[in-house]
User: Fold these one by one.
Assistant:
Number 1:
Amino acid sequence: MSGAMLKNALVTLKESGVRITPQRHAILEFLISSETHPTADEIYKALEHDFPNMSVATVYNNLRVFRNAGLVKELTFGDASSRFDFVTHDHYHIICDECGSIVDFHHPGLEEVERLASYVTGFKVNSHRLEVYGVCPSCQEQGKASKAN
Amino acid sequence: MSGAMLKNALVTLKESGVRITPQRHAILEFLISSETHPTADEIYKALEHDFPNMSVATVYNNLRVFRNAGLVKELTFGDASSRFDFVTHDHYHIICDECGSIVDFHHPGLEEVERLASYVTGFKVNSHRLEVYGVCPSCQEQGKASKAN
DNA sequence: TACTTCATTGTAATGATTACAATTAGTTTA
DNA sequence: TAAACTAATTGTAATCATTACAATGAAGTA
């Protein structure tokens, strides 16, 4: 099924007049197969083996191309670098305050919130962003173990 | 009323053993009176006149102190620098995709989303973050005016 | 095949944020 | 109030993610 996602993405790109290069193919493939919302640098390092000459600028350039095509979302948290997420069906993220791990979860869209926001502010709403923060099961276990802190 | 907010903030700081310096006082005061969710650099520039010797490092240091004390929230969007928001009652932000202006709006908390996320993922939920994106009234006007684009 | 245009590469530049060491200034206690 | 202790500020250098740019290379097209 991730094969179909890749194929769709390539079609979308072609339709917007974007050339399919081996680097773009590889970056997309990696993003789709990745569960971890990688940073640009992580993508770069992951593909270093197959593309020893690829520049980190290429990764950034293409992430921007994908983002403009609506294929990829950029996630900016407080920390230094952005993370990138291949857009599939709508999902939100929950992030562990302790270890930083990111887990997807599904929830019906928040149209009602968008409506209210639009009504109150007069904005024409395009989209929204939601993240939940907490402590993941694994860190909860460790917390129990070292109660002494 | 913003005077009371400042006073409360100072008490909170003192209670956590944080010293009240003129710089901290000024940064807090500016944040409370500001409607614009300023960046660290904007704060620095705004106070330059009153504190000609203040270092930009001081601004960053103290914003971190305030954040740790729960007085200030850091807002990270895609763009280069973080913005800082004095925490009052709970409100969310709606951001203009075109001009970047940020407007507050109120909405009941999303406890139900938190509950679902917690149930699905096993996380112990601490908080969430929500932002809505769209086009502000003023940019909508300009869009109409220059349909030619 | 040759041409046109876009993509990649490598490197330098930018800009936000942080680290660090020296100095200064709150706060406490006698 | 003065001395002493400790935390805060300052100035600067360092770091690190991201972007700009110019030269080279490769896709797509006639």
Number 2:
Amino acid sequence: MREQIDSGKQSAAAWAKRCYFAGRAVMDATLRPYDLGATQWYVLWHLANFGPTVQRDLGRALELERATLSGVVATLVRKRLIRQEASGEDQRQRLLSLTASGDVLWRELPDLTFIQQTAFGGIDDADLATTIRVLQAATERLQDLVQKEK
Amino acid sequence: MREQIDSGKQSAAAWAKRCYFAGRAVMDATLRPYDLGATQWYVLWHLANFGPTVQRDLGRALELERATLSGVVATLVRKRLIRQEASGEDQRQRLLSLTASGDVLWRELPDLTFIQQTAFGGIDDADLATTIRVLQAATERLQDLVQKEK
DNA sequence: CATGATTCGTTCGCTACCTAGCGAATATTG
DNA sequence: CAATATTCGCTAGGTAGCGAACGAATCATG
């Protein structure tokens, strides 16, 4: 929202938005041949790298709301790429794991780390650290604001 | 997506995402009593500050796709907060302006600039500038990547 | 041990984005 | 001037994310 750039504060927020959407656009374009969304890729990525995971833990790891993850998981189950089983200990929990075909697909998928490499590669380490620190601080303050609204 | 923090590069992208959604959450919470979404607010804001605007120009100013804006505009027209008229010069264009009730509502709305003030206030100017520069560079590189995919 | 609070996953309904494709209007070019 | 290309707004269909509300399971407390 370009006109909001009357001060650096608006500008920072606007660039955070643009950066997020630009990154997602690249992921979407890359994953299009595989009929996968960015979030679906993250789920497969986690299961491939960390093995079977309880849905709650997956949500916390990927920082997704239960409702959001629920929908993504349902989609992947429908595609038979992941499996959703009862967890032994807690009957409320669902244990997620890759199916055989999910594992096969995962091996075919391109490595997506090149996206961040392209985006932030060559940027000064100190500047990158500053950026992360500023965004982190802003996010925390915003989350506090939401809490206070309630 | 916290586990992606094996390098600052993933982390920066993840924080950009969180920052964007946190900001939107505050806007949504603030605007809830008025039954308005964040994007709807931006449209009203622009019309209140810049007067009647052609839909195409509004889309460019707010950096929204035609399709996205089309839906938002339809919603606001349905609420009778804005008006959509034929533009004199070009018969394809639609001129948008606040209705009387839209103007009344706008005056009631709280000032939302406090959100960015809260989020980025007190942060060192140089750090803020660095953040903007890094995000801007990353966004441009990502957009180039998308172009190449095509 | 019974009651109440919390947690987990689901569903519903919403906003906000996108791409693709359409028809109509306008610009460009041979 | 006719044919072609572009632009503008709309619609359809998709993903991503949220909050609220719900049943079932579990935990905490009197």
Number 3:
Amino acid sequence: MSENLQCTDTLHSRGFRVTPQRMVILRILQEADTHLNPTEVYQRAQHAMPGLTEATVYRTLAFLTDQGMVLAAHIGSGQLVYEIAGHAHHHLICRACGYTLEIEHELLAELYRLFKVSTGYQIDSLHTTFFGLCPECQAPELNNVA
Amino acid sequence: MSENLQCTDTLHSRGFRVTPQRMVILRILQEADTHLNPTEVYQRAQHAMPGLTEATVYRTLAFLTDQGMVLAAHIGSGQLVYEIAGHAHHHLICRACGYTLEIEHELLAELYRLFKVSTGYQIDSLHTTFFGLCPECQAPELNNVA
DNA sequence: TTCGCTATTGTAACTAGTTGCAATAAAGAG
DNA sequence: CTCTTTATTGCAACTAGTTACAATAGCGAA
């Protein structure tokens, strides 16, 4: 609830409007414990607000991402998913079983400093995705000899 | 040319067919000095092979990516681009001007080792994209005081 | 070389995502 | 409370990307 109030203030102070559509979509992302793709957001929003269109969902997600209230990430080939902007974190996704692990941003902070020093680029990706194999899915390929 | 022969052998040895469509698309990616999106690949392919369809371009790019001959990367919101698989590298993209810098994989190797130790995940992303601000685009926001 | 198997392509219909524009409604002024 | 401004929405048409299925064509076998 307090998060919603905070978002309301932020929007007001930046000259944007607080609309029920935006509040519904923010609420959905806050209550989700994981990332959602636009269609999932749309489906959940239908319950709270049957008239809401998919175009508005796409536009609102992009808008909230621009405002830094929501983080967008790519998972798999082309799928964009969204998540409420909380603690900065990144994803390790197993490309075999799809299991997703969150890692703290602090693990990448040193890398970002290295980028800054060696290239001048100030990186601010807060939601980077890395693909690989989780421990379970490495096993069949490596340990089946014995 | 020798790269094409190598790809031919690889496809044969894995039981896949060597088709003119695949060769054309591989050639285009080899001759491009940068990454291309599917539409750009399609347009260039039209010259060499007018009958080629866009569906085949999408399918072939996904296929070549699966085979490890081509690398796919996300740039911007939802755009997937492709690049011939050569040296492993990653991208730093300026979200203000869009300028893209390549960085060697070696810079991320230590991070991957850290992932492996702390989570067990064996990361193999060879084409990760980081967003931020390039040195020129940082200037107006930071240095305009004096 | 010819044949047969089947991976691959092209077609066309489909789903996903975007955008222009008129209608609506948030929010400040009176 | 009412009016005015204009950001935002819904609609509908659009572009981008995917997929089912029949036709085509690699390529190994004879």
Number 4:
Amino acid sequence: MDLTRELPLDQIMRGDSIELMRMLPPASVHCVFADPPYNLQLRGELRRPDDSLVDAVDEDWDRFADFAAYDEFTRAWLTECRRVLRKDGTLWVIGAYHNIFRIGAILQDLGFWILNDVIWRKSNPMPNFRGRRFTNAHETLIWAARGRDSRYKFNYQAMKALNDDLQMRSDWLLPLCTGAERIRNAHGLKLHPTQKPEALLHRVLLASTAPDDIVLDPFAGTGTTAAVARRLSRRYIAIERHPAYVEAALGRVRRVRPAPLDGASNTPTRREAARIPFGNLVEQGIVPPGTTVTDRQRRVAATVAADGTLVCGPLRGSIHKLGSEVQNAPSCNGWTFWHVERDGALVSLDTLRASMRTASD
Amino acid sequence: MDLTRELPLDQIMRGDSIELMRMLPPASVHCVFADPPYNLQLRGELRRPDDSLVDAVDEDWDRFADFAAYDEFTRAWLTECRRVLRKDGTLWVIGAYHNIFRIGAILQDLGFWILNDVIWRKSNPMPNFRGRRFTNAHETLIWAARGRDSRYKFNYQAMKALNDDLQMRSDWLLPLCTGAERIRNAHGLKLHPTQKPEALLHRVLLASTAPDDIVLDPFAGTGTTAAVARRLSRRYIAIERHPAYVEAALGRVRRVRPAPLDGASNTPTRREAARIPFGNLVEQGIVPPGTTVTDRQRRVAATVAADGTLVCGPLRGSIHKLGSEVQNAPSCNGWTFWHVERDGALVSLDTLRASMRTASD
DNA sequence: CCAAAACATGAATCGCAGG
DNA sequence: TCCTGCGATTCATGTTTTG
């Protein structure tokens, strides 16, 4: 397959992440989710990002060299991600205190624009056995747009719905990946040391992508991103170097059935709903010309003209313009500001529009 | 006073942080708490949905030319902190996604050894008014030892006691500094835009210092660190450049009486009610997207969408809203109304939620 | 005087489509 | 690419005003 001409959609490619990304065309994916290696100083031994062992020289220059090597690796894969990302695309990276600060600084240097840092609070973290620190009970995700001016996608209403109709916060409480979801080898041992829970990817993809969007995971591991993307009817491009992980991921993805269309959908943002000019309500007699509209407190009143403008003394304009003028406010959503009387009660224009929308479905 | 020979204990010094720290002798303080400028990079004004203006941080001290200038500043003050810190001392820095990644990377480069990153979860954050991002509901603290081999202080038992005899986690839920604690000027306006709550410093100092230890705050503001240090019978060295802040801090510290050292002054932790949105059951695969839910008599059916809403023909909404709509009832408890099939029998969502609760206990 | 409602505010990197 | 105009958007908490 010629990757420079055809995207390897819904595939899990085995190989080096940076090399393979270099073969992809620029501005081709909507979203990147990356869970990069961070095996810097976790064990007694030091490992480089490519998993090779560092001679145990415990001197200052060695520590510096080690950070420098990690930074170089980070800069390389983030550069490729940015090249491959569409102008309005976003990138997610997950990490912990060993590596996330370096990643965050480098992605800022590369021109990414951070939108949020998100805290995955683990409901069941591993305790700190030696009692020398706080229980390390979270990991950090960075969500960033390709650039400061990106018109990135954020499914605000879907996130709000997911959280009982309150704005979704930057701290997410989710359990670790355990039980049946955890992929194990023939001996019953976990195959991957840091397999991420599918619930985490569910929220990530639902927040920042639409169905059929293309999601790239350069460090795919056992294929959590690919599996969730498939279930939510997103396309994926997954890269993983370790053959055993690739094999597990292939089997895993094959077992996933995409949710039916309704299931993969989410609440559309208001802006995505069909636009209905106020004039339509006038034309269709829902708010006939000559109707009096007022604010909620009935402090100001205006008359509906046949062309859908409002008239109030010498003032005339759209529902928004007149709303802002009578309030002396810089702007106004006329749909929610103005009301008409129905059965003795005041009903907002927005309510009338909503009933018109469901009637036309 | 000759700072090179005598420590300015329990004083709030007015002046440039880096210059004054340079005059202090090396290895002289036990702990540093630093709340540096965040380099917020705001542009334009922001209005709430009610058109009121958000009072944003626009002080001179938070403006930097670019990332390079901010990094240089950061490297300079962190270098002095490290020089002044005792071998076994620790440093705390607080920041947000605008600056914390740069700070974390630089302090690693300087040889600090990160012990934890700690998340201050705000119980009452400002919402995201435009609905373009997740509510930015937390700030990040980095806790680091002077070096990898530091035998740093951690009051494990005190932290455990503060947390109902469970290990203290790396995520702390605390309210913002408001009400009587917030220092105001003669006009009743907040004096400092970013005054930190005393409860935060209480936990920081109780975790990582002993009575009579010396705590340095290079960006003291209105003296929160100094006030809490005094109440907990720690010594402090505070540096602040702005005369009005220094004046406020001096008066504030004077009013503090050291508490008896019996530990009775522990601030209690906030216990959270276990709120489980229906969306959690969807994310975690307990009720996967696409599942069909029905009422007990199977008279109406709906499909579960990925964001936790239910879809039924043209209707879409939360489990409660859709439940009331299909019944034509004013309200409905969706948890008990809707059921899914499990082993051929109908089980209410409420039952599934209950099993989820016990699993997480 | 009390209860209820209205108001105020917090480290904020806070539009978008169409012409 | 710039310009214009539509019209989307808030939670927890403390304080003040109103009935």
